[in-house]
Amino acid sequence: MKIGALIVLYQPDREMIGKVIDCLLQQVDKICVVDNSDHDNSTLIPATDDKIQYIFMNGNKGIAAAQNRAIDYFINQSFDYIISCDQDTIIDNTTISKLSQTMLDLQQAGIKVAAVAPIGIDYYTHQPLSYKIETIGKQQIAGHELLEVTHTMNSMSLIPIHILKEVGGMEEELFIDAVDCEWGWRAKERIGARSFCDTKIHMNHALGIGTKQIAGAYRIHITPASRMYYQYRNYLWLLRRQYTPWKWIYINGFKYIVKVFFYTIKGPNRRSYLVQIMRGIRDGIRGKQK
């Protein structure tokens, strides 16, 4: 099993990216770092380690385009699996071997697997992330306690190369938000490939730049204003597709209504958020790319 790790960078922190690379070097055969930053960060990458390939994208081309560059690299290098990693996700030194074993056991059980991922633990609350939107059901297969989902998160998803060849890469027009969702749905719709989270494997993961509790119960993740454009635009694009799950449409529709009121009434930099939300809605209705 030849595993390559892809890391997409965007204005990375030197200390954090060093920790991420160090923990991955012990667990994979090669790392492909694709940099969407405004300037070259190759000095952050250990120059003496031939297990690392650095690709500079000359500006932010979006997470999907960066992932596709790494996917093409690993396909050309005849790798068997890719594991995608965020630039700030730290894992322990057994995470990838555990995911690999889960993947192999599922495949030996005759299941066509799109992706296997850990359960995310919220960096801010230290509680398991909610999987209400993407959950299909709990499964116990080949000794593993699994959560079958419509898609896995980008970070720490282990994906077979042969599935990527069948399904295709990430949809670059989406740029950033819902890229992982769309690929998982497409894998299920096109070839019947299924996605799982192993409930016994965990990772710390930060969604957005913080959390805010509303009305004492409902919690939203705070994201930068620029992300609002892609969230609202991509939501309107994707709700028109036949393979988009109804649960994702309804729950996110409610969430985005709540966010409009929060960001434009109580949130910081209200004007910036309002402008980005309105632009996203406009281009989402028009079906127009940015």
Protein model, in words:
- The chain has 290 residues and is α/β, with parallel strands linked by helices.
- 39% of the residues lie in helices and 25% in strands.
- It contains 8 helices and 11 strands.
- The protein has helices spanning 14-25, 63-76, 95-108, 161-167, 179-191, 225-238, 246-266, 270-286; strands at 3-9, 30-35, 52-56, 81-85, 113-122, 135-141, 144-149, 157-160, 194-205, 210-214, 218-222.
- Strands 3-2-1-4-8 form a 5-stranded mixed β-sheet, with helices on both faces. Strands 5-9-7-6 form a 4-stranded mixed β-sheet. A two-stranded antiparallel ribbon has the order 10-11.
- Helix 6 packs antiparallel against helix 7, helix 6 packs parallel to helix 8 and helix 7 (246-266) runs antiparallel to helix 8.
- The longest helix is centred in the C-terminal third of the chain and has 21 residues, at 246-266.
Q: What is the helix content? A: 25-40%
Widest beta sheet: strand line-up = 3-2-1-4-8
Number of DSSP-assigned strands: 11
How many helices? The count is 8
* Main beta sheet: 5 strands, mixed
Strand content: 15-25%
Shape: globular
SS-derived structural category: alpha/beta
In terms of topology, how is this protein built?
Layout (H helix, E strand, L loop, with lengths): L2 E7 L4 H12 L4 E6 L16 E5 L6 H14 L4 E5 L9 H14 L4 E10 L12 E7 L2 E6 L7 E4 H7 L11 H13 L2 E12 L4 E5 L3 E5 L2 H14 L7 H21 L3 H17 L4
Parallel strand pairs: 1-2, 1-4, 2-3, 5-9
Antiparallel strand pairs: 4-8, 6-7, 7-9, 10-11
Helix pairs in contact: 6-7, 6-8, 7-8
